Amino acid sequence: MIPLGLLVIALGIVSATRWRWLRLVLALIVVSLATAKSVEDIGKPIDDWKGIVAEIASHARPGDVVVVVPAEGSIAVDYYAGRQANFPSVVCVPGCYPQRNLPRPYGSNFGAPKLIEPDGAIVEQALRTHGRVWLVQVSVSLYDPKGIVRSRIAAARTFVRYHGNSLAKVELFE
C-alpha cells in the first residue's frame, strides 16, 4: 500500500502548486520513492499459509493440537485446514480472531491483542487434553514478546523441529 499511497501523494502534488518545475520535481521524487519501495517489497518473504498448513497436515498424528498466536493467524489456518483431511484441532490464543475490547494493549490492529500471563492458562488446558503441539506464530516480537505461549509449551513438551520463515513459523513439540 505504500507505493500506491505515494502515487496518490504525487498526484496531489502535481495539482497543488502553480510552479510547473516544482510540481515536476516533487512528483518525480515521490514516484521514485514509490518505485524504490516496490522493488524493496518484491524481495521480502511472505507468510506461506498454504505451505504451513500442508506441513502440519502431512505430519500430524491423532491427538495433536495446533496453537495459533496471534489469533489473526487462525483465519488463514482455518481456511487452508478445511482443505486437509484429518487436520488437528486448533486453539487460538487469546481467542478466535477478532478479540476486541480486552483490557490489554493491542499489537498491529484492534482484533489481535498482545498476550499476557493469564493467556498461559489457555495453553495449559490444551496441553492437558492433547499430545503433540504445533505452535504457529506470527510476529512474535509484536504479539508475544515475553514468549508466554512458547515457554509454557516448552516447559511441558520437547522441541522437535522448526518450519517457516522470518514472518510465520511453526514449531513442533512432543
Question: Can you give keywords for this protein?
Answer:
Rossmann fold; 174 residues; 2 domains
Q: How many individual helices?
A: 7
What count of domains describes the coordinates? 2
Could you state the order of secondary-structure elements as H and E? HHHEHEHEHHEE
- What percentage of residues falls in helices of 4 or more residues? 40-55%
Task: Return the average pLDDT rounded to an integer.
Answer: 83
CATH topology of the largest domain: Rossmann fold
- Overall, the morphology is elongated
Helix and strand layout, with pairings?
Blueprint: H1 2-14, H2 20-42, H3 49-59, E1 65-69, H4 73-81, E2 89-92, H5 120-129, E3 133-138, H6 140-143, H7 148-156, E4 159-164, E5 168-173
Task: Describe the fold and architecture.
This protein is an alpha/beta fold and about 170 residues long. It has 2 domains: about 1-40; about 50-174, Rossmann fold, CATH 3.40.50. The protein contains 7 helices and 5 strands; from the N terminus they run αααβαβαβααββ. It has helices at about 1-15, 20-40, 50-60, 75-80, 120-130, 140-145, 150-155, and strands spanning about 65-70, 90, 135-140, 160-165, 170-174. It has a 5-stranded mixed β-sheet, sandwiched between helices. Helix 1 packs antiparallel against helix 2 (about 20-40), helix 3 packs across helix 4 and helix 5 runs parallel beside helix 7. It starts with a helix and ends with a strand. The mean pLDDT is about 85.
